[in-house]
Design goal:
By secondary structure, chain A is α/β, with parallel strands linked by helices. Chain A has a single domain, classed as P-loop containing nucleotide triphosphate hydrolases (Rossmann fold, 3-Layer(aba) Sandwich). Chain A is 35% helix and 27% strand. The longest helix of chain A has 16 residues. By secondary structure, chain B is of the alpha+beta class. Chain B folds into 3 domains: 188 residues, no CATH class; 87 residues, no CATH class; 109 residues, no CATH class. Chain B is 54% helix and 18% strand. In chain B, the strands form 2 sheets. A 6-stranded mixed barrel of chain B has the order 4-5-10-7-9-8. Chain B has a two-stranded antiparallel ribbon with strand order 2-11. In chain B, helix 2 packs parallel to helix 12 and helix 12 runs antiparallel to helix 13. The two termini of chain B are 39 Å apart. Classes of the chains: A alpha/beta, B alpha+beta.
Chain lengths: 222, 416
């Protein structure tokens, strides 16, 4: 599903290039649930952004399925994000003025699906995360766990190949964290590849595999 | 079918009421003020124009007799110049650009009146002998009856046309003056018409304190022979009043043996200067309205742009999410520009409607208006073009914030 080969990424910091990712190689097979761990500054956010086609890398190759993600135009990148990927963020990032079902339907809006159909599909996915009764509620009326469920439904609604989760439990208490991890495992159980960036060991423990990023390199890989 | 993007846009706008209201109110206010100013500018112009009495002020010439100051063709200076009726056909045929000529005689001299009596009421008003053409030079609004006509002139009828202000002095309230007699220096005249001046204020009152009788009757009744006291004339629309005055002077100077350079021998006044002053005044009003109006509109547009800029900052995370979910940069730009367009056009149109309503209300209270202020009005085409300008302004207002929005990197937007 994911194949990274010799990925390098530099940032310009105060006129000096900072080597953030150093010759990264990584392979994630379809249906895997992989945790990427690392302390802050290890480069894990950068890696997630590259995987999420939100940021470009300087050299190497990134294969997503049978598609080479490299040198994309802005429009292509947007289309790939929309069709291949689902995002789950630490602070949910639901649109505050849209209710749950509208938030879930948003990716379908960018696929050009008509309103009635996308709301029906969104309702379907809300039901799967157990929030059918909350469809008309605004995010401000929901708990953190509920918001993250809505966000997961939003990530799933476009039927992506890959779910990218950035500290999905970072803002939740331990009980709710557990529920969210169970939900993500369910998703994974349906055959969708999941990549979770986290610094919590018990989150990583729930995944099928863990890779550790230290100073821009995978520990033990080299 | 309404496009989906419009529904999406409408939802963004309607669910963010405070933001929408703040953005729209700037434009609304700008448009409202512009409409008010254009309206009151118009009202001011109409009011001033009315006080000037329409065309009266714009192309009239008055010529009266003076005293020579230069010797000419063996004649000594100090000779008093008097006109007579033989000057009339000469002027009519020889002066280029003459539209109407109204020879006049007046009792008591310029701006002086004489006693006029009716049924024990007496008042001091101006009494003049006039040609029918005088009504062309100085327009009158006939309230009752008629103006002097050719038959009055030919038959030396002792008819008279009375001004409204004079009527109020001589007659009881509600009394019909038509057919009644008024006495001037022992000569009785029958009133055949009652008029009002189209001008307002002092000038109008002065014009209405008057009694006009046929020129021929006047000269006969008051022993004027064939004397003409002075001439009132108007120039054709394509001829300047100052040129007409020069033409009349040339003809009269030749007929009365006056040195061509003798300015004192012939008294004259033309309204060219006044005309130009009024033109300048109107140009000034127009200019002021445009300058202030443009500035108001501009500030409205800048206001929209400003609030949208703040909005974009506030929506950083929303825009980041939309980008992550598949929105393109162009899509984000278009979203912001559409929002700006929607807000400016709706708010601008509301401002227009409310502004026009306010003008209507003001017009209702101002009514016919007075010397300086007519009813405020606005040209529909002017108002609509202001809306178009506003919408184009809205487009530009949206561009800067939209570019800022497009520059938002989803990575940074989603980090918090």
């Amino acid at each position: 599903m994911i194949r990274l080969s010799r990925i390098n990424k530099y940032y310009q910091v105060g006129g000096h290039p900072l080597h953030v990712l150093k010759d990264l190689d990584l392979e994630v097979r379809t249906g895997e649930m992989v945790a990427i761990m690392g302390s802050s500054g290890s480069g894990k956010s950068t890696l997630l952004n590259i995987l999420g086609i939100l940021d470009a890398y300087d050299d190497g190759e990134y294969w997503l399925g049978d598609t080479l993600v490299k040198g994309l135009s802005e429009r292509q990148a947007a289309a790939y994000r929309n069709r291949f990927l689902g995002f789950v963020f630490q602070s949910f990032h639901l649109l505050p003025f849209k209710n749950a079902v509208e938030n879930v339907a948003l990716p379908l809006y960018y696929q050009g699906i008509n309103r009635r159909k996308r709301n029906a599909m969104a309702m379907d996915y809300l039901e799967r995360v157990g929030l059918k009764d909350w469809a008309e509620h605004l995010p401000s009326e929901m708990s953190g766990g509920q918001k993250q469920r809505v966000a997961i439904a939003r990530a799933l609604v476009g039927q992506p190949r890959l779910i990218l989760a950035d500290e999905p439990t970072g803002a939740l208490d331990s009980v709710t964290s557990h529920e969210i991890m169970d939900l993500l495992k369910d998703v994974n159980g349906q055959g969708i590849t999941v990549v979770i960036v986290t610094h919590e060991t018990d989150v990583a423990a729930e995944c099928s595999r863990t890779v550790r990023l230290v100073d821009g390199q995978f520990e033990g890989v080299a | 079918m309404i496009p989906d993007s419009w529904v999406e846009l409408w939802e963004v706008v309607i669910r963010n009421k405070l933001r929408t209201f703040l953005t729209a109110s700037g434009v609304f206010w700008g448009m409202f003020m512009l409409v008010l100013m254009l309206g009151f500018g118009n009202g001011l112009r109409v009011g001033v124009q009315k006080a000037m009495g329409g065309r009266w002020a714009t192309n009239a010439v008055y010529i009266w007799g003076g005293r020579t100051t230069m010797p000419y063709k063996g004649l000594q200076p100090g000779r008093s110049i008097d006109y007579d009726q033989s000057d009339i056909p000469a002027l009519m045929s020889e002066v280029r650009g003459l539209e109407h000529l109204a020879p006049r005689n007046q009792l008591g001299g310029y701006r002086n009146g004489v006693n006029v009596v009716h049924a024990g009421n007496a008042t001091n008003i101006s009494v003049s002998g006039d040609f029918p053409s005088f009504a062309e030079v100085m327009p009158r609004v006939m309230e009752k009856g008629r103006w002097i006509n050719e038959l009055d002139m030919a038959e030396l009828r002792k008819n008279a046309v009375l001004g409204h202000a004079a009527y109020e002095q001589l007659f009881e309230r509600g009394e019909d003056p038509i057919g009644a007699y008024v006495t001037v220096n022992g000569v009785a005249f029958q009133v055949v018409g009652l008029f009002r001046s189209p001008q307002t204020g002092d000038r109008g009152d002065r014009e209405e304190m008057a009694l006009h009788v046929p020129f021929t009757t006047f000269n006969n009744a008051f022993n004027q022979g064939d004397r003409v006291g002075w001439f009132a004339a108007t120039a054709r629309p394509d001829v300047a009043a100052s040129d007409l005055e020069a033409g009349i002077r040339r003809v009269l100077a030749e007929r009365h043996q006056i040195h061509p350079d003798d300015r004192q021998a012939i008294g004259g006044y033309n309204s060219q200067e006044e005309f130009e002053r009024v033109e300048n005044l109107f140009a000034g009003i127009r200019g002021l309205v445009w300058i202030v109006g443009t500035a108001t509109l501009l500030s409205g547009v800048v206001g929209v742009s400003n609030i949208l800029l703040i909005t974009v900052r506030e929506r950083t995370s929303e825009i980041g999410v939309r980008r992550a979910l598949g929105a393109t940069q162009l899509g984000v730009v278009w979203m912001i520009v559409q929002e700006a367009l929607l807000l400016t056009s709706v708010a601008g149109y509301s401002g227009l409607v409310v502004g026009v309503a306010a003008l209507e209300l003001a017009a209702y209270y101002v009514g016919e208006g007075n010397e300086t202020m007519g009813p405020p009005t606005i040209d529909l085409s002017v108002a609509l073009s202001a809306v178009v300008v506003l919408v184009i302004g809205g487009l530009f207002a949206g561009v800067i914030p939209a570019r800022r929005a497009a520059a938002i990197h989803p990575v940074e937007a989603l980090r918090s």
